[in-house]
Design goal:
single chain; about 180 residues; alpha/beta; UDP N-Acetylglucosamine Acyltransferase, domain 1; five-stranded parallel β-sheet
Length: about 180
């Protein structure tokens, strides 16, 4: 998985890591905000890196957690799903709208290989001061440049340039 090669996601070691992430997300999602602050301690310990001022609204789900690095003052709205099979880097002051999934995993196109659980992990990098609108979908291997805006409901299949605004399915630059 770390090498970026095809791997079997049905591996018992990986399942144990996913169980740890599910437990941390459950703690975060079921602890009243007044008792946990902006992020549950278990979720904060799970992430690879987390800077000051990060806020993660419940419910939140991630595959592993340890591949997630969050810059300062990142805001993740309710309903986020991060399948962090590869590094998922989110830069400072980035805003992620409600119901946004970010997928680092891709399943095999061959149905026999897919049934066997083969997938590949591709990193996702989101720059600083980015705004991702509600319901947008970010696919594996994508880089979103600093200050970019991803419109609500957009499906981001290719990298987005800094300062660009993308909308639609698949996401395309909006003319200014």
């Amino acid at each position: 998985m770390k090498a970026g090669d095809w791997y079997a996601c049905v591996d018992p070691e990986l399942e144990a890591l996913r169980a740890k992430a599910r437990d941390a997300a459950f703690e975060h999602n079921t602890t009243p905000p007044s008792q946990r602050g902006d992020i549950a301690p278990a979720l904060a310990r799970l992430f690879g890196a987390i800077a000051a001022g990060v806020r993660v609204e419940a419910p939140f789900h991630c595959a592993y957690g340890f591949n997630i690095d969050l810059g300062e003052q990142v805001f993740i709205n309710a309903g986020a799903v991060f399948l962090d099979t590869a590094p998922l880097i989110i830069g400072p002051r980035t805003l992620i709208g409600p119901g946004v999934p970010i997928y680092c995993a891709e399943h095999h196109l061959d149905p026999v290989q897919r049934i066997a659980g083969l997938e590949i992990a591709k990193p996702v990098s989101i720059g600083s001061d980015v705004w991702i609108g509600g319901g947008a979908i970010i696919l594996a291997g994508v880089t979103i440049g600093d200050r970019a805006i991803v419109g609500a409901g957009a499906v981001v299949t290719k990298s987005v340039a800094p300062d660009a605004i993308v909308v639609g399915n698949p996401a395309r630059p909006l003319e200014r």
